[in-house]
Specification:
Strand order of the largest sheet: 2-1-3-4-5-11
Number of helices: 11
Largest sheet: 6 strands, parallel
Helix content: 40-55%
Shape: elongated
Number of strands: 12
CATH class of the largest domain: Alpha Beta
């Protein structure tokens, strides 16, 4: 009889725990925000670092994070399809990096009109309905790139730039800042630009063609991660170490290896982990009622990394921010 009472009490206790747990889960689901993170792609080290930061913030702020990205960084129509998906699924917020400043604008406006808060990271979109903007000050990053490119004793400089799609705002802003500083230096005699697909093989071929067409080039620059890998590999393939100063963007492992070997002279390193983390954190704050000024960029900082500082504590933090 006593054992029977004990079993009944244990059963009642277990039922109570299950009911409390169910109520808690139901309550949590009711207050959990649904946030879409729509990026330019999902395949590079840069975006994987963004995802690492976003997932860290996801755990901290208890949000339902859905990550989407097209197959290439030229596919803005794919991004627009993901924005429509977010609208259909009644997302609370979208964290967005635009492939096209103009061609993504109408879809973002439609999302905002549907009551979805929009946070831009990395690459801007032509919309007045964005709640906050986070990322690199790209014009300043271009100036920083110029400083790295000009850090040479060469008396005459011819600069080759491998940039990405003309529709992408951040690439164009980087080139504006870069040219602005290059043109102030009397040693710079020519500046050549080629626009490439955002793919390291395409960038390598573009860089090789540019170098063959203009053999006087002695400074070569790639303005994002895949392009940075491409120009670095072009320099290695043509055995240009010591003859061409190569400046690449971001902390791809391949570029870090080539920096160590001397094939790359400097890396311009952003902080994609911070972009992902702050994107989710800022979306949560906006949904909780906090206001931001979208005309004031939340700057995630940019660093120049060379052989001289790559093994310092600060250098390692910049190169491996996701760790």
């Amino acid at each position: 009889m006593r054992k029977s009472k004990v079993r009944i009490l244990l059963s009642l206790l277990l039922l109570a725990v299950l009911l409390l747990s169910a109520c808690g889960n139901s309550e949590g689901q009711a207050t959990q925000y649904k946030i879409y993170l729509i990026t330019k792609s999902t395949s590079t080290e840069f975006w994987r670092s963004v995802f690492a930061g976003a997932n860290a913030a996801k755990a901290e702020y208890n949000v339902n994070l859905i990550i989407r990205g097209p197959d290439t960084e030229e596919n803005y129509t794919g991004q627009n399809m993901y924005i429509q998906e977010a609208i259909r699924n009644h997302a609370d917020a979208i964290i967005f990096s635009a492939i096209s400043y103009t061609e993504n604008a109408a879809a973002i406006d439609e999302a905002a009109d549907a009551g979805i808060k929009v946070i831009v990271i990395d690459s801007d979109v032509n919309s007045s309905k964005v709640s906050a903007r986070i990322g690199t000050d790209n014009i300043q990053a271009g100036r920083i790139t110029a400083a790295a490119a000009l850090d040479t004793e060469e008396a005459h400089l011819s600069v080759g730039i491998v940039n990405f799609a003309l529709v992408s705002r951040n690439g164009q802003e980087r080139e504006i800042g870069l040219r602005e500083q290059l043109e102030k230096d009397e040693r710079v005699e020519q500046i050549y630009t080629v626009n490439s697909l955002t793919d390291h093989d395409a960038a390598r071929e573009s860089a090789i063609s540019l170098l063959q067409e203009h053999p006087e080039i002695n400074v070569l620059i790639g303005l994002n991660e895949p392009l940075g890998v491409g120009v670095a590999e072009a320099s290695e393939e043509l055995d240009l170490k010591g003859r061409v100063r190569v400046v690449s963007f971001d902390s791809n492992i391949r570029c870090i290896e080539l920096l160590r070997s001397g094939d790359v002279s400097a890396l311009i390193v952003q902080n994609p982990y911070a972009m992902g983390y702050l994107g989710v954190e800022t979306a949560w704050k906006v949904l909780e009622g906090q206001s931001f000024r979208p005309d004031q960029l939340i700057d995630t900082a940019t660093s120049i990394i060379t052989q001289e500082n790559m093994f310092t504590v600060e250098g390692q933090k910049a190169l491996f921010s996701f760790g």
